Request: fold
Amino acid sequence: MVTRLHEFLIATLLFSLATPAITIADEHRDSAERPAKWLSESGAYTVSFTSSVQPIEINRIHEWIVHIETEEGDPVENAEITIEGGMPAHNHGMPTAPRVTEYLGDGDYRAKGLRFHMQGEWQITIGIDDGSVSDSVIINLQL
Amino acid sequence: MIRWRGKSATIATIATEAAVLAAIVCVTAPLHAAEPESWTAREIDMLRSLSLDNLEPLPADTSNAVADDPVAADFGHELFFDTRLSSNGGIACATCHQPERRFTDGLQKGVAIGTSKRNTPSIVGAAYSPWLYWDGRRDSLWSQALAPLEDTAEHGSSREQIVQVIATDPSYRATYESLFGPLPDRIDRDAIDRVFANIGKAIAAYERLLLPAPSRFDRYVEAVVTGDVQAQAEMFSAEEVNGLRLYIGAANCTQCHNGPLLTNNEFHNTGVIAFPGDVPDKGRVTGVREVLNNPFNCRSEFNDAANADCAELEFVRTGPELVGSFRTPSLRNLEFTAPFMHKGQLGTLADVLRHYNDAPPAMIGHSELAPLKLSHRELQDLEAFLHTLDAPLKTAVEWLQPPD
Reply:
């Protein structure tokens, strides 16, 4: 009993002292900027995207335009693109099965059917195969 | 500085520390009183995302040309309460979807002509969901409204009988024809299906009016957002605040019960035990198969949109991970919607919270839950918070009674 009381008192004090620090950390995290471009695993491709819903909201089906360039900055034309996602912390995938529906030219691909159903850390994996190089890029999203 | 001195600490030492702490608390108390919104910016964002103030206007349903037609809503209101749309003349939609119970029936499974396979879900706010039913086997409010009419355990009727009721009731016939054009002279299969679909569209126009109103929780969030300290204190007890903190934190509720309707309308396996005597229900995995093949789905000829947008259906997820998963229900109006879960397996909110706290393994598929390990007191606080979500409907009272 003595030990439990002791622990409780200390925890109470520490919690009240720690609270402002938590607030600051959260605000800092909120303002952190996401990178606008992502490099594929082996460095063959650079990927960026724009979402039809800005900022991305949960529970809303929407589409992305995914832009893919080579290392040299040239658009990657007519590649095979796969897109899938999930939440590593919850060990589940997306509620939808998104896919690239058309190549728009200039390295732009339309991906439809994206929807996120929880707040938190999401990981979107985009697979790219231009016929000679197959690579993938992981995009981390904080919703 | 206070630090741990090991188990040899005496009562006297602890008493001294307690006095020091008490002094600190006394000194800081006025500061806390001036700043009781001990919510971080991130938490306030989360609270705001759950508030009805954040609910977007009801999206248009382009698959239903009369979705927002007041004449159709009136017609749907009549149909919703009409027992002639059943095989024994005694069952209406309102038999199970009782307005005074927030459109549920208080039973484990719905009872109409027979006993339904699952628990009667509320219709309030259903117009916001891309999927209907516990297993999402329909993809629009209007196509859902058709299914119980022909379900032998529910209305036990047939589309021929429904068309007959419309054709022979002069008032119904006139209203139907004003909305959808003349009833066809020759009633063949296609014509019957068309009239049947239109009946669903009128019922859906009524159901679109069934919406939740702000609850005490929404007013509390408003007080937090505006920094109205006094209103916060008046609105929520310490237990309710703690319950809300658990809701958006350690209890993981917002993983699924998120957004202003407190549901993501998605499908999750939460390991709820099978109904006694029933084989475990496969849930979404069969629902998704059914909706893809339903003759009244978004891709069907009965969709009124010129360029039908069927993205939800087109990009729907299928596969074995859906085994044993069911659609997340809204948590608004829990006061009236017990028993809970897809077959009413859990009678009270306390039972539900205990289930999430224990997180038993699923009988089929894989449960997404992990034990919460919350204390009894924390579960009570969580339950106290959940009751702050109760509120009357936004819908005018005349819609909640049988039509004159």
Summary: The radius of gyration of chain A is 21 Å. The interface with chain B takes residues 2-3, 5-6, 9-10, 12-13, 16, 19, 22-23, 26-27, 29-30, 58-59, 61, 90-99, 112-113, 115, 117-120 of chain A (CB under 8 Å).
